[in-house]
Amino acid sequence: DQQVKQNSPSLSVQEGRISILNCDYTNSMFDYFLWYKKYPAEGPTFLISISSIKDKNEDGRFTVFLNKSAKHLSLHIVPSQPGDSAVYFCAASGFDASGSRLTFGEGTQLTVNP
Amino acid sequence: NAGVTQTPKFQVLKTGQSMTLQCAQDMNHEYMSWYRQDPGMGLRLIHYSVGAGITDQGEVPNGYNVSRSTTEDFPLRLLSAAPSQTSVYFCASSSRDRVGYFGSGTRLTVV
Asked: Residue A88's closest chain B neighbor by CA?
């Protein structure tokens, strides 16, 4: 079963506008959530994260919102820039005695048009 | 600062051949893991390690072996390659802050 799901395979926005990427999860044991950005032929790079004790975390143009009751998180990028065009992965972690493991969503291809 | 280094970047294998994908990190991270990325499926965990000498299976471990003799290195072995193992493989390391830092990947094709 897919414990982390990104329902939109792609998103296209105009430069300067807001990009909103969504992610849903099913496992109540997840307590830490991350967003990664991936360019072709490169590894994922960490973008921003949020702990389940918070509902919002900001870092410059990037803000992540967490709605625990809905098991939903979103990434807002404002303003969007052409360099933001990449695949964005949502990931979740539930820290247990076995260490930190990440469960990823399928990814959303963001295209920011000049 | 190299971070996580993976070799090789590309590899073509024939069915039944074996090979080892190398992964090394220089951040003194406790945790290391291997993922595979397939179209439309995101990244899936193959094996992971919480420290030298300790490994465990992830979501898709069949056909792969790992060992961790040092903190820095975490090689992934394919014992008998199959076309279903054609994928892009990523190694990651993390500390207790749970942020995974990824290598640039190995693109493997099994024919």
From this structure: B42
Q: How far is CA B42 from CA A6, A108, B51, in A?
A: 10, 10, 25
Interface test with A, best of B98, B102, B107 (most A CBs within 10 A): B98
Question: How close B72 comes to chain A (CA, Å)?
Answer: 17
Q: Please write the tens of the pLDDT for every residue from A4-60.
A: 999 999 999 999 999 999 999 999 989 999 999 999 999 999 999 999 999 999 999
Q: The tokens of B9 are what?
A: 């970047």
CA–CA dist A83, A30 (Å, integer): 31
Angle at alpha carbon of residue A59, lines to A99 and B92, rounded to 5°:
30
Distance CA A47, CA A36 (A): 5
